[in-house]
Write a structure and sequence with these properties.
Layout lengths: L6 E4 L5 E6 L5 E5 L7 E3 L7 E5 L12
Antiparallel strand pairs: 1-2, 1-5, 2-3, 3-4
């Protein structure tokens, strides 16, 4: 599955993150909400699912309490 900047993904543990491009020419995943500090290299774990993107699915960026 192809992953692009701005995609919203979920890993096997249920952590959600947004794919961002950094200054070192690599894609990173930045955590959403309480997981905000959760940053990883995208592609580091094979069980990553794209669940939407920041443009078409902004509601996925909302944090439920």
């Amino acid at each position: 599955q192809e992953i692009y900047e701005g995609d919203i993904c979920k890993d096997a543990r249920g952590f959600r993150f947004v794919v961002v491009w950094d200054d070192n020419a690599r894609f990173l995943g930045r955590g959403i909400g309480a997981q905000r500090e959760y940053i990883r290299y995208v592609g580091q774990e094979p069980a990553v699912e794209v669940i939407g993107n920041i443009h078409d699915n902004p509601e996925l960026l909302e944090v439920s309490v």
